[in-house]
Amino acid sequence: MDVDISEGKDRIGPMYRDRHVLITGGTGFMGKALIEKLLRCTEVAKIYMLVRTKKGKSPKARLEDMFANPLFAKVIELRGLNTLLAQCVVIPGDVTEPELGISVEDRKRIVENVSIIYHCAATIRFDEALKKAVLLNTRGTKLMVELAKQCKKLEMFGHVSTSYCHLNEKLLMEKPYPPPADPHKVIKAVEWLEDDIVDGITKKILGECPNTYAYTKALGEAVVVEAMKDIPVVIFRPSIVVPTWREPISGWTDNINGPVGLLIGAGKGVIRSMYCNSTGYGDYLPVDFGVSAICVGTWNFIGRKDFSRNIFHLVSSQEIRISWEGIIDLGKSIVAERVPLNGVFWYPGGNMKKYRWQHNLAALFFHWIPAVLIDCLLYVLGYKPVLCRVHRRIANGFEVFEYYANNQWDFDNAGINHLRDQINEAEKAKFKIDAGGVEINEYFENCIWGARRFILKETDDSVPAAKRHMRVMWFVDKICKTIIYGAFFYYFGMWLYNKVFAAAV
């Protein structure tokens, strides 16, 4: 029976007591954060992690590498590494393989013991080959649903979807939506067809859907919705997942997806122009808020037995909105004044362009021409050219980003508002799912510190040198602008004189 809210006792953590949890995608960004949260803030008995061999590393070695991540430093200090290793059981497997690549013995262990499944595994690359995306995001989900149906103690199948998988809906409600195609037919088609054939017909298959990620995640969600009649399902739709707000450390991340990549690119002086609706905004979800919401949603479903809500939007734009231009301007000021990055190519600058032709022109002068000149200089000095390669990757990324940056979506989040009303103050502090206390400038400054420390591996003792380098870049930037603008006005003045005044004389 629930403890009354006024008593202020945590009911969420104890709810996991004696329960065994299976997690896919546990070595990914959100998966790692979810595992850390469960280990630190709940009484979960066992965590089974479906992990594949990658880059020659065994699943067990990958688990050990995961615990070496700074994200786990706090929970290791509290509970000890050996305890955590004993609590986490590695299940070698791969969601892209038939039968999930799981052995008979491991499958039996899962079927006999697991009561909660969190399916987080997915490829989040927007430009992923369609066949690979279908096998992972759609067929992998179907195979996980089939495994869940066999679990004798199953109380909840939690599917981590995305709030950006039904892009034809400008206002997304917390309800199922029809998929863009029959997921089972698409799975059979890509299984039967060769890779090059699938690649050749990808655009036709996608139709109006802009990329394989949104398409295959929508299909995967449809598979889960279909299974609601057979198993207890909760769907979580996070938006753009970004670094931690505070838990367990501020600004932690392990990738440069979303706005973090933009902040780094602008901060390094590499990104000087973007084709983007500057007044538009994206929806961001600090990953610690996301995993807390998953825990609270699980408690609501299992502990409170509230089956009336089983689709939750994990979003922020109903409470906090910051435009694309606001993010870039904030990032430039933070990097230029407080948290400089090492090896800056150019002083942070540039802006967003309303029209594509403006961006293309700016990219030519501020991206490609400097890249070619610097790469030529590097080649002459005996170094490997890098900047043109960097800008090719940026250009490819912009092709995907521009669709999202120049369109707008809003999301209903009545489910999370409902959860907020069900938890007491102790639970709100331990499992934060509201925007109270979030200060945008402080948050993005912590994001840049996080990117500096965890992605770029730049140590704090290099900050003074980075600041000196930034001052030099500022001086160089001013000189170059003076020369460029001076040359422009000189030649424009000469042209005007020859056309107008000289002709009149």
Automatic annotation (TrEMBL):
Localization, per the record, is: Membrane
User: What Gene3D superfamilies does UniProt report for this protein, alphabetically?
Assistant: NAD(P)-binding Rossmann-like Domain
Entry's Gene Ontology molecular function annotations: alcohol-forming long-chain fatty acyl-CoA reductase activity; alcohol-forming very long-chain fatty acyl-CoA reductase activity
Q: Which CDD domains match?
A: FAR-N_SDR_e, FAR_C
The cross-references to SUPFAM superfamilies, in alphabetical order and at most eight, read: NAD(P)-binding Rossmann-fold domains
Residues annotated as transmembrane: 361-383, 479-497
Give the family per the record.
Belongs to the fatty acyl-CoA reductase family.
- Job description of the protein: Catalyzes the reduction of fatty acyl-CoA to fatty alcohols.
Report what the protein is called.
Fatty acyl-CoA reductase
What is the species of this protein?
Aedes aegypti
| UniProt gene name | 5578326
